[in-house]
Task: inverse folding
């Protein structure tokens, strides 16, 4: 892995983490297309690439923390106050509980699929098929949303549980985390902006946990000293900067337009990738 590859993947991560097009799928595609053009064997595993993936997600996590700093502070204050008074009637406090419960559900669902998800990194054609499925989910959510009598601007318990299940399924590359969680919000009657904001807030504990826990469990520290840290740091910074801008303009986009364009993109990109890597292998 070199600096150009890391920066390129940082840009891809920053854009695709928040857009409903699967950041993990695009990291898989970018890494494997890069290997094809460089003549590197796709099936060659690299702990350094896995670690870079984690660090790129950390970069976009920092972008979420900065962009939603006011909302996060309000939720934390409300949750602490609710615990002190033993009164959880405040909506911000409820959202804090929903995020905690949703994180637990996500972990319970994701852990059994972890090994399979990691193997998919080296099967871009399968990831392409999963991305096509994401595209159809986006279309279905918009269709269902348009036929609901009214759209809600607040998350309730039942909706939060369904969104948590969607986030758990999205451990698979190609199943967009933001796409599946926002779509689930639309299925359950949320407006697009509310669904997107809750989706981003729900991602914080999972990405934070993965960024802190994974390196200590899976990465050999002696091996980590041999990594290209210049490339890793550069990619992480780029992913954070691009991610911040992506959040800002994506929320503005959702206030006016539907997810249909992303559905088309997922289907086209998924089919192209699946066909390309089936031919290449």
Result:
């Amino acid at each position: 892995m070199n600096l150009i590859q890391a920066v390129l993947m940082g840009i891809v991560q920053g854009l695709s983490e928040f857009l409903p097009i699967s950041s993990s799928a695009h990291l898989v595609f970018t890494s494997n297309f890069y290997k094809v053009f460089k003549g590197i064997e796709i099936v060659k595993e690299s702990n350094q690439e896995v670690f870079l993936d984690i660090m790129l997600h950390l970069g976009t996590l920092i972008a979420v923390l900065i962009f939603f700093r006011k909302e996060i502070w309000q939720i934390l204050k409300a949750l602490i106050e609710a615990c002190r008074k033993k009164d959880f009637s405040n909506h911000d406090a409820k959202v804090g509980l929903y995020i905690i419960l949703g994180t637990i559900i996500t972990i319970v669902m994701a852990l059994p699929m972890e090994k399979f998800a990691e193997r998919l990194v080296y099967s871009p054609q399968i990831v392409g098929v999963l991305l096509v499925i994401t595209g159809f989910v986006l279309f279905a959510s918009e269709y269902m949303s348009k036929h609901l009598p009214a759209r809600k601007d607040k998350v309730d318990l039942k909706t939060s549980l369904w969104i948590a299940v969607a986030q758990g399924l999205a451990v698979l590359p190609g199943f967009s985390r933001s796409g599946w969680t926002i779509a689930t919000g639309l299925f359950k009657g949320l407006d697009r902006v509310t669904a997107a904001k809750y989706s981003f807030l729900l991602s914080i504990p999972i990405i934070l946990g993965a960024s802190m826990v994974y390196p200590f469990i899976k990465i050999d520290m002696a091996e980590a000293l041999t990594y290209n840290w210049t490339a890793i740091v550069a990619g992480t910074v780029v992913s954070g900067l691009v991610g911040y801008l992506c959040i800002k303009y994506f929320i503005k986009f959702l206030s006016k337009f539907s997810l249909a364009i992303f559905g088309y993109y997922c289907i086209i990109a998924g089919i192209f990738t699946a066909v390309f890597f089936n031919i290449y292998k």
The first helix runs from residue 3 to 16. The mean pLDDT is 89. The radius of gyration is 19 Å. The chain is about 80% helix and 0% strand.
